[in-house]
Automatic annotation (TrEMBL):
Source superkingdom: Bacteria
Protein's name in the database: Family 1 glycosylhydrolase
GO biological process: carbohydrate metabolic process
Extent of Polar residues compositional bias: 424-435
Gene3D superfamilies the UniProt entry points to: Glycosidases (3.20.20.80)
Organism: Massilia eburnea
GO terms assigned for molecular function: hydrolase activity, hydrolyzing O-glycosyl compounds
Keywords: Hydrolase
Sequence ranges of Low complexity compositional bias: 411-423
Region (Disordered): 409-435
Length: 435
């Protein structure tokens, strides 16, 4: 059993489309993971990390309705299993395959649930999932800001993307639970706050501060605020669709993941326009707001900062975020993990993947030559110093995560004795790349 606090990192696997769907912004390709994945897994072990946010590229592994190419997933996930690293399976990260189109497609939720079930059946040792990453951000950037995928710029486009994305997440959780009843789900979601710059901006900031909870309200079956309910009804959600979310509550299987970056807080001016404010409240204050709303165990699922000219900017941010995590924990919130995202530097996130510039962003624990950065050394030391201090101190608060090799041991113990009179099944057991 995985004991103690979850220190994690992740492989950046975003893959939205831009330029009307003509360009795929595949971060695994841009960052060299397809070529260096074995080295990347070595680096995870070198840091002392036992949990990795990782997912095969959906646009390459999901080739059609009920059709899959598992070749890359087979190699990588089986290697993580061999290393006994817990994979937090990141199934949909900001994009869909070309054949689905985009998040406006009403077929996406049911089709994605079929994919999730097939994934769980093929990799039964995987227990922890983020079915759809940052649902709120994905819907905003795709349906309202006009940046990714459908590149729509309307409230209706946002609401349509949101209801399809969250429904896909719920149906995927249900499908996975049918295969692995002890599955756990970490909702990696951006934690936001909007500050009014002047009295005339109060109404706009209050609306945005209510809307920031929308994806989690729907996912956890919580009734939305009255103004948000009217907003949903005015922009294409039906009463029947709304009640689907109220009636499909799986929050007892969930850990609420809060992502926090320097850009997560915003100033709002009188006309409703927003701009980044930098850190004002910080992770601890905002996470308490989310915890008070949902009362779920919490994990800090993403943060990073670019290494700047002094070379210590990211290290100082790591220490600040860790201090916030300890403050949240010491205030009585059941926080179970922390993540520096991602393992390596990223590409073009300085423009939110809106343009294919090829600009390397020094955000990782390692650079793209797989050389450790100062923040990687600091994170390695932090894990070493704190891992023995922060098992959650109470067996009641430990997350019941089985290590991959433990799943195989339990399955072997539960299996019936083989019938020695029957021929071996090894010849028919080889995996195929398609289902």
């Amino acid at each position: 059993m995985f004991n103690g606090f979850i220190f994690a990192t992740g492989i950046e696997n975003s893959y939205p489309t831009i330029e009307g769907g003509r360009v795929r912004m595949d971060e695994m390709e841009k960052c060299g993971h397809y070529k260096y994945w074995r080295t990347d897994f070595d680096l995870v072990e070198q840091l002392g990390i036992r949990a990795l946010r990782f997912g095969p590229p959906l646009h390459l592994s999901w080739t059609g309705s009920g059709k899959y190419d598992w070749s890359f997933a087979d190699e990588t996930l089986r290697d993580l299993k061999r290393r006994n690293i817990v994979a937090i399976a990141d199934l949909c990260h900001f994009g869909v395959p070309d054949w689905i189109g985009n998040f406006q497609n009403p077929d996406f939720p049911a089709e994605f649930a079929k994919y999730a079930r097939a994934f769980a059946q093929r990799y039964p040792w995987v227990q922890v999932y983020t079915p759809v990453n940052e649902m709120q951000i994905c819907a905003l950037f795709s349906g309202m800001y006009g940046w990714w995928n459908e590149q729509m710029t309307s409230d209706r486009g946002f609401v349509t993307a949101m209801k399809h994305i969250v429904k896909a997440n719920i149906l995927a959780m249900r499908a996975i639970l049918e295969v692995r009843p002890d599955a756990l789900f970490i909702q990696s979601e951006s934690s936001e706050y909007f500050h009014a710059e002047c009295p005339a901006a109060i109404a706009q900031s209050e609306f945005r501060n209510a809307r920031r909870f929308l994806s989690l309200d729907l996912n956890y079956g919580r009734r939305v605020d009255s103004e948000i309910y009217e907003y949903l009804m005015d922009n294409g959600m039906t009463r029947e669709e709304y009640h689907f979310f109220l009636d499909n509550n799986l929050k007892h299987q969930c850990i609420m993941g809060n992502d926090y970056y320097m850009t997560n807080e915003h100033h709002v001016n009188a006309d409703g326009a927003t701009r980044a404010s930098g850190e004002i409240f910080g992770y601890a204050v905002i996470t308490h707001q989310y915890y008070n709303r949902y009362r779920l165990p919490v994990m800090h699922t993403e943060t990073n900062l670019m290494e700047g000219p002094n070379g210590d900017e990211a290290v100082r941010w790591l220490r600040k975020e860790w201090a916030n995590v300890l403050r949240v924990r010491n205030n009585g919130v059941p926080i179970v993990g922390f993540t520096w995202y991602s393992l390596t530097d990223q590409v073009d996130w300085d423009v939110a993947l809106r343009e294919n510039r090829g600009t390397v962003n020094p955000l990782g624990l390692f650079d793209l030559q797989r050389k450790i950065r100062p923040v990687g050394e600091a994170y390695r030391d932090l894990i070493r110093d704190w891992c023995a201090v922060l098992p959650t101190q109470s067996i009641c608060l430990r997350v019941p995560i089985a290590l991959p090799q433990e799943h195989e041991e339990v399955a072997a113990q539960a299996a019936p004795a083989p019938d020695t009179d029957q021929p071996s099944s090894e010849a028919t057991a080889a995996p195929t790349n398609t289902d």
